[in-house]
Structure formats: structure tokens, C-alpha cells
Amino acid sequence: MTRTGPKTTGPKTNGLKTNGLKTTARLALTLAAALTLSPGAAAIAATTAFVHARLIPIDGPETADGLLVITDGRIAYAGNAGGFAVPADATVVDATGRWIMPGLVDTHSHVGGFAAADDSGPIQPGVRVLDDVNVLDAGYRRVVAGGLTTLNVMPGSGFLSSGQTVYLKMRKVGRGEVLNAEDLAYTVDDGQGGRRVLGGLKMANGTNPQKKPPFPGTRGKSAQLVRTSFIKAQEYRAKVTEAGGDAAKLPPRDLDLEALVEVLDGRRVVHHHTHRADDIVTVLRLQKEFGFRLVLQHVSEGWKVADQIAAAGVPCSVIVIDTPGGKLEARDLRFETGAILTAAGVNVAFHTDDWITDSRLFLRSAALGVRGGMKREDALRAVTLAGAEMLDLQDRVGSLTAGKDADFIVLDGDPLSVYTRVRQTWVEGRQVFDLDDPDDRLHADGGQGAGANQTPYLCCADDGGES
Amino acid sequence: MTRPLLMILTALSMATAAAALEPSPTTGGTLAVRAALLHIGHGEPIADGGVLIENGRITQVGPFATLAVPQGVNVLQAAVVTPGLIDARATAGLTGMLNIPHDQDMLDHTTAMQPELRALDAYNPQDELVAWLRSLGVTTLHTGFAPGPPLSGQTMIVKTTGATADLAALVPAAAVAVTLSPPRGFGGAGELFTTRAKTVAVLRQDLIRAREYRDKTAAAGRDRKATAPDRDLHLEALARVLDGELALLVTAHRVRDIAGALRLQKEFKLRLWLDGAAEAHQLLPELKAAGVPVLLHPAMARPTGELENAAYSTAGSLQAAGVPFAFTSGYESYVPKVRVVLFEAAVAAGHGLDRLAALEALTLGAARVLGIDRRVGSLEKGKDGDLALFDGDPFEYTTHCLGTVIEGRVVSEIVR
User: Fold this and answer.
1) Exposed, middle or buried: residue B363 (CB in 10 Å: 0-12, 13-18, 19+)?
2) CB contact under 8 A, B346 and A447
3) Residue A29: what pLDDT?
4) pLDDT over 70 percentage in chain A
5) Considering only alpha carbons, which residue of chain B is nearest residue A372?
6) At what angle do helices B341-349 and B314-321 cross, to 10 degrees?
7) From chain A, which residues contact B within 8 Å (Cβ)?
8) I want to staple B170 with a disulfide (CB 3.0 to 4.6 A). Which of A14, A62, B127, B157 is the partner?
9) A52: which residues sit within 8 A by CB, 6+ positions away?
10) Closest CA to B82 of B362, B412, B283, B373
């Protein structure tokens, strides 16, 4: 173990020394989060250097003897050892034998204990899943155990549009930490002195949204309802434009139409559940008509229409399931989908669809992509940078690149091997998962109590041992 | 996406290596396999090992150089070869790939207690799920009625080939399926049992009735003056359980339900197979003492509801405690419609279970638990020539299954 710089008091973690600023860092994070709620602002004011790890930066070649330097919650350097002068006061962590890669980005997750949506209607773009997310859901413990640091949390697929998705940063949740889902959300300056929560719009076609009226009964009806909604949104937008800022002329605010206008204006990406080839093509047809930005989600039969998808320039977030079927639309699902779409020139990500597949095994989807013929680098990109691009977060996460958030994972072997474990997960320069911590390990492995949601700290009413 | 795959050589000449791999009547049932690593079902693998299968049965096993392969016999080559994999608790073939009423025969909702339902009358060997499992090295399935009502029906053991259920059957009736976790009634009024205690009560009552039926039947056989009861398929099935002819397969996840299963075993002296057992990690000494094998839930079964305390590491815990266990695909009502034991064992191997122990549990261990180890589970002279061929460590996600052999016939050559 090599260590320089100031004395550290952090726990030894199986050959990997964490920085010794845990207590201070927690306080700093809490304060920062309370003040700004802004990703990147919650940071440790210190520099840590991970030396001798094998680095998988995603946006460049793997480095056998790598150096990762993080400062103030961001990546200062990632590359060859010796390519960067580590500050004298940095905490140095010997990561010999470890592999480090970016935190994983899951473009389609249902973790958070929320309802899919209610049955009041097939199109509900005004509904925000954010308002139903339980940050204490045990699923989020499994999420960080799997090395996921960014999630697109989505409402369900039994609707043409079940509402707005939210992009979450997997900061530490629980007692003395984040308890409001909004504090996990990626945000941007809204130009009016506040912050706008980032997310997309969930849409779906095929059999899932087909139910009794007012839901559609056929694919044709589904498309008709969606077209009608977008046309209304176009008319609403025209009225807003015509008003020219005159409050008296503005139409009454309509949250559903406002969300659809954001879609029409390209400020909100449509994440569209779709399986069958003809359904995929229907989505592409609607996209062409209304011009919205689109990520195809699941895309089980995408391999059949890879060229059409590529020609449309639409990225795909692909699900990997152990066996085809389980529903008619997924009978032709294949391990080869990622490989075929990538070869056609489509930007491909994978997703968990958790609880369909478990976040703890997200890297397995990338590995099964390789099993299906995908190149290793494309498969690893598909669980990191490609996903970040689909969420418009590529400038913040998805690769080990100087200036990006210090979201990364430490592994004890090749990320595509079944025998490899995620040892640590870091978000904004702070460790949020440690396999050597017994409670974290319980959630990584499962076991008695692993399914229980975390207990919030209730001041003066329970003995949490913390104040 | 079938691709040509297995490198075929003949014992006669390397020049014919490119010969097409078409199972034909003239070669069916006889072939040789050469593996850089040959796993025989237990212990360390044999380096550069070989197996000769003649007329469907293994006749020689050992280092390839020691085999006497008759002229003209095809030699399949692969990096790693294992015995055919065994799924110790499935519903595939009763449940079908499409998940539409047409192909879902794993649960009968008409009434809650139906031990008389035979898997043989419901298993569809031609379902695509069976072909999928076969393409991933699974050669033997213990399949049948799904968990759900207190008594859902029977199970059977099949090979993953065979045009009909009768041809596929290795054991036409293996067990009667009971579910304790979660307690769930089916059928009409008076059968919607929703508590654990009631479920156990109706099961005990049924088993007691079956014991009386069996005793009366036996008495009539001994004494011509005694009247034999009218035949009752329901009680006949349970009488076979009481006789130990069929096992009682009890799906129990919670500690209290596992304990309940052990109580049933003790009271009725049953041959118990504990199925699922998500909380088995809390009862290792008790399971060891009871000598009960565990048909362990899929490692990747979702940790919610009755399985909220499930652990990836349970297989490793059972192994360490000396409790016999096997891997299962369990039952899924949605996606994935069937799980693959190869993948489940891999996750267990990635979470604390020794690799060789995982491989043994997938093959010989499962065969022993199911009582079919005289036929399958290991590569030994006299056993069925059932093999799975891989291009690397079978558990690695990126390894492919290259082909599957059942009784000396290549039954899958899909690279998957």
C-alpha cells in the first residue's frame, strides 16, 4: 500500500484505502445539498488519487497502470500513471489489482417503490414520477451495489404516456442524507433563479397500453390518440407564441400540454417503450411527423429493422432478458440485438428495467451483449457513455474524463466476468457503496433484512444512534 | 442465428473435419467428444479428456489418448465439456413461451387441491422454451405444475428432446407439488385459503384421508371380506406420496413455512423436496439435520414479496453447511418466462459458491437429489450420453454453449 499526503483515518478496505474524510465529507455534502441541490456542488474539498488501477475510461483505450485523480467531486485526471502531477497534499489510494470505470448509467429503471401510473387515462404527460419516488426504497441500495450512479427512473408502460421520467444521481440517501427525491435529481438552471429537474417523457405502444376505454384497444387507435395529443400541443404552443408574453392572451395553463410542448421543443426526450418491429416503425413515423427527440426503449425486435432505426438516427436502449417470450411481443428477443444495431450504426445502450432485471447485475447485460457478438468496447459504452448521451448528461457523466463528475466504480476484475464484484461505488467524489461494509454487503448479496426499506431518521422518536 | 460451430473430426482422418454435422440414422447415438477440459460431474476436470458414446450410452471416459474410438465415429471438439445440465424444478413445457392462454397449462384454477393432475398429460415437449433450454446445455428437466395453490398437481422428469411427453419422460411422475409460500387459495367458495395455518390444516387433512384410503385399500388386498374403497385419483396420488413412491415437493420461502414443511415430513414420513427456500440461509443446521434436499430458487429470482430475504449467496451457504441442493428455473408468470439454470448457477458461483461445486450441483448433485443418478448427471460408463459443449468456462457470461448432446445425438448446434 502506497500512501502519501496527510494522515488518513479511513477504514482499510481490502487493499484499497479510502480517503479519510468520511465524517467531514458527510457534513459538507449535507450542507451543500441543502443549499444548492446541484450535482457537482456536493463535493469533498480534497484531492484523492487512485494509483495503479486498470482504468477503463470508455472515451479512450484501457490503461493497465492507470491514475485517477478526483478533486472537489470532479475528475481532475484519468489516464496513464505519470501523466499528471499528483498534488503533494492528495490522499493516495493504492488500487493495484483493481479496475476502475465510470459509474454505470441505467437508461430505464423502475426502482423507487412508485406506482406505474393510475388508470385515469392513457395519456398523462403532466404527471411526474418524481412525486411518487421513495428514496428509501431498498432497491436503491441494490442500485449502488451494482455500480449504477445515474438512473432514468420511469413510470410504467401500461399507458401511451404514463408521465415524466426523472434522471437521478445516486447520492447517499437515508438518515442525515438525502430524503427528498428532488435532491437526487439532475437539475439545470431554469433561467428564473431556480433549478429545473431533468427528465424525459415515458411513452409506450404495443400491447401494454391496450386496455378497456378510455385506453386504446388497437395499435391504430394508440397512434391516433398520440397524434391527437401532439396536435393539441402544437395548437397550445401556437397560442402561447401568439400571446407574445401578454398574460391576458395566454391560454390557461395545462400541465399535460406543457410537457408535450417541451417534447415538441426538444427540451424533453421521449423514452418510448416498444418491442415489435412494426411498433418500432410506428414510433419512428410519429417522430418524423412531430419532430421530437427520441430514445427507443427495449427494442426487442430492433434487429429486424436495424437499418430503418439507423436511418432515422434514433438511439436504442436495449433490454437483455435470459429467455425470449413471456409476452407475445418479446418472442423474437435476442442476445444479438445490441450487436446488430451497433453494426448498423445505431447508438446502443442497455438498461435494467429493474425489477425486470436486477440492478446489481447490470454489467451482466453488457457481457451478454458481448456473448451476442458485440465488441467489448461497445458493450461497456452501452452501460455508461451511450446511456449518458441518451439522457443529455454526456458532459457530466459516462466516462472517466477530466471535468466530469467523479462518479466511478472500483471492481476486483474484468467488468464482464461473472466472478467480478463491484467493490466500491463513488458519486461526486464520495463513496456511496462499500462491499466491505456489512450493511452494504447485505444489500449486494441479499439475505435476511435486505428487502426491508431503510428507516428514516425520526428525531426524538427512535434511537438511531445519530444526531 | 444458427451458425456452423462444432469442430468435427473423425477418428479416421483429419481431412474429413469439415464434414457436415447432421445427426443421421447411421450415426445417431454413437459419437465421441474431446475436450480441453472434460468435467465429469464431480471433482476436478480431466485435461484433454474424451467420452465415447455408443448407442446412446457412455462406454468410455478418460484422457482422450486412452480412448479406443472405433473407425468412422465422429469426434466433436470443444474447449469445455460437461455432463448435460439438470434443471431440478421447472415448469417449462407446461408453461409456454408466448404466455397466452393457449400455451399456459402449469396452473389449473378450477380447484385448490389437485394432486391427481399428471404432468405427463400437460407437458408439451415442442414448446420453444424447451428448445431454448436445450440450446443452453440443459438436457434434463424436472418439470410440472407450478407453485400456487396448496396442491397444484404432479411433476415429471424429462429429457429436453422427444416428440411426445411419453418419449421425453425419464420419470413420468416424480412428485406432488405443494405451496406454502405464499398461502394462496384457488377455485370456488371454501377454497380460497389465504392463511398459512389453514393451508397446512387442509394439507394434513388431505394426507390423513389418503392414509385411511391407502390402509383400507391394503386391508382389502389382504382380506377378501373387507371392501376396497372406490378408486379415487386424488387420494391415490397422495397415497403414492405416503408410500414414498412420489416425493412431496413443497415450495416454502419463509422460515416458518420451511419449518412447516419439515413438520409435514416428520408427521407423515414423506420424501420431502424443499423448493424455493429463500430463507434457507436461516435454517442451515435444521435442514442438515432433517436430511432434506433443497431445490433452490433461481439466484436471480426477484427479491420481493416472499423472497424479499433471498440471497445470491444461499447456494454457497448450503454447500458450506453440507445441505444437498440443486439449481432450478423456478416459475415465472411473466418475463423471463423460464430462467436458465446455467445462468443461475453462474450467479451463485459469482457469489461465494465454489465453481466445481456449482458444476456438480448442476449435474450429479441434481441427479442424486432427484434420484436419477443411475441414468444421468455424470460422465460414467453405462450412463446416458448427455453432454453440453462450451467454448470456455460455462459460467462466464461471455462463453457460448456450442451444442448439446442427448443420448449420443446432437440435439442442438446453435451457438448461444
Assistant:
1) buried
2) no
3) 36
4) 88
5) B416
6) 70
7) 142, 321-328, 330-331, 334-336, 355-358, 360-361, 364, 367-368, 370-371, 416-421, 445-452
8) B157
9) A2, A65, A66, A81, A94, A95, A96
10) B362
Cell readout for B271 is: 420424501
Of all residues in chain A, the one with the smallest CA distance to B394 is A418
Contact status, residue B122 vs residue B91, Cβ threshold 8 Å: no
| CATH code reported for the domain at B85-370 | 3.20.20.140
| Substitution target from B2, B100, B337 for chain A, most A beta carbons within 10 A | B337
Using CA coordinates, name the residue in chain B closest to A336. Answer: B1
pLDDT tens readout for residues B50-66? 999 999 999 999 999 99
Q: Which among A328, A364, A451 has CB closest to B100?
A: A328
Nearest to B397 among A327, A358, A371 (CB): A371
Is the Cα torsion angle A424, A425, A430, A434 positive or negative in sign? Answer: negative
Q: Do A355 and B302 touch (CB under 8 A)?
A: yes
CATH 2.30.40.10 fits A12-102+401-445, yes or no: yes
User: Hey, where are the domains in chain B?
Assistant: 7-84+380-412, 85-370
Q: Looking up cell 469439415, which residue turns up?
A: B18
Rounded to the nearest integer, the mean pLDDT of chain A is 90
The interface predicted TM-score (ipTM) is 0.92
Residues in chain B: 416
Let me know if A349 is exposed, middle or buried by CB neighbors in 10 A (0-12, 13-18, 19+). buried
Q: Under an 8 A CB cutoff, do A322 and B304 touch? A: no
CA A308 to chain centre: 26
For residue A207, the distance in angstroms to the closest alpha carbon of chain B comes to 13
Residue of A nearest to B395 (CA): A418
Assigned fold of A104-390? TIM Barrel (3.20.20)
In angstroms, the separation between the Cα of residue A27 and the nearest Cα of chain B is: 32
Nearest to B176 by CA among B236, B124, B253, B129: B236
Q: Tell me where in chain A the CATH 2.30.40.10 domain(s) lie.
A: 12-102+401-445
- To the nearest whole Å, the CA of B339 is away from the closest chain A CA by 7
B309 vs A367: CB contact, 8 Å cut-off? no
| Alpha-carbon gap: B412 to the closest alpha carbon of chain A (Å) | 16
Rounded distance between C-alpha atoms, residue A122 and residue A118, angstroms: 9
pLDDT in tens, B304-361: 999 999 999 999 999 999 999 999 999 999 999 999 999 999 999 999 999 999 999 9
With H, G, I as helix, E, B as strand and everything else as coil, classify residue A202.
strand
The verdict on a CB contact (< 8 Å) between B336 and A336 is no
Nearest to A205 by CA among A163, A165, A161, A164: A161
User: How close A326 gets to chain B, by Cα (Å)?
Assistant: 4
What tens digit of pLDDT does each residue of A236-246 get?
A: 999 999 999 99
The two counts, helices (H) then strands (E), for chain A are: 11, 21
CB contact under 8 A, A419 and B100: no
**pLDDT of res. B20:** 34
Average pLDDT, chain B: 92
Closest CA to A93 of A49, A53, A63: A49
Residue A154 vs residues A81, A368, A395: alpha-carbon distances, Å: 40, 24, 22
For B308, which of A322, A334, A451 is closest by C-beta distance? A451
Average pLDDT score over residue span A251-275: 98
CATH 3.20.20.140 domain span(s) along chain A: 104-390
Q: Is B186 helix (H, G, I), strand (E, B) or coil?
A: coil
> Which residue do the cell numbers 499526503 mark?
A5
The C-alpha of A376 sits at a distance from chain B's nearest C-alpha, in angstroms, of: 10
Identify the bridge partners of residue B77 per DSSP, sorted by sequence position: B7, B34
| Side-chain half-sphere exposure of B332, counting CA atoms within 13 A | 29
Q: CATH assignment of B7-84+380-412?
A: 2.30.40.10
pLDDT of residue A456: 62
Residues of chain A with Cβ-Cβ distance to B100 below 8 Å are 328
